[in-house]
């Protein structure tokens, strides 16, 4: 038996997983984590020439790339059949008329047995009770409903992360200017890194679900106010900063000047005023450690490691 034969046998014995959108900050970590845990990893990409964050030179050959688009069910079906994958990571795609239902069905008919979906922690329980006016929550809930109806409760898992640390990049310019205006700056909330979300997603793809749990809430390790977070970022950059408060009306107008429609701006502002559910946070704060075996990254450490993205 040749080395090539042995290599092919080892490859065939590994779990094959497919990652849609691997150029994203979360999906790229999902891919690397699943590979580190022994999976054959297939990257499903609209543009197979695009850079995937974190793939070091020399490791590219370990990741097969296939052209695919989650908006195109036939593309999804062909990609799964070609790859032979049994598990898939997907994320929310806006602009589909059926809330991704056709693509979900394509995943199933092509042979996928477990889907890990990047949802949101605002989907608290039964998605069927969420009104369309709660835009982001409603849209993610519709995908979860589709997964439940097509795959059943043991065939999918929804990752429900809280607020991403990476959203603070929206304040990059005003932090560097030295004056940041915020709505409800003193409400303390948790922030989780895309890396931790991806580590959990990759671990579940590689190892499967635990105890039949088909949704996993993910929270950052501590809570911090917007004001303190912005001040910490500015301090890490060595820049002075002044933080002032906006009224709800001023916040809506500010978003509208940045191009958001009034109803969307009002929705974003209403979400910003929501205080975190303490019991939910306490119950699920250890999930990152539970699924990955190591604690989540703190906001402060994330800032120190990512200062470069805040420089103009």
Instruction: Name the overall outline.
Output: globular
Please estimate the helix content: 40-55%
Q: Over the alpha carbons, how many angstroms does the gyration radius reach?
A: 21 Å
Strand order of the largest sheet: 3-2-1-4-5-6-10
* Average of per-residue pLDDT values: 91
Percent strand = 15-25%
What would you call the structural class?
A: alpha/beta
Describe this structure in words.
This protein is an alpha/beta fold and 312 residues long. It is 43% helix and 18% strand. The protein has helices spanning 3-13, 25-36, 73-83, 101-109, 135-151, 172-177, 194-207, 226-237, 248-257, 262-272, 278-284, 287-292, 299-305; strands at 16-20, 40-45, 63-67, 87-91, 114-118, 156-161, 163-164, 179-183, 188-192, 215-218, 223-225, 242-246. Strands 3-2-1-4-5-6-10 form a seven-stranded parallel sheet, with helices on both faces. Helix 2 (25-36) links the parallel strand 1 and strand 2. Helix 2 crosses helix 7 and helix 3 (73-83) packs parallel to helix 4 (101-109). The termini are far apart. Mean pLDDT is 91; it is low at 1-13.
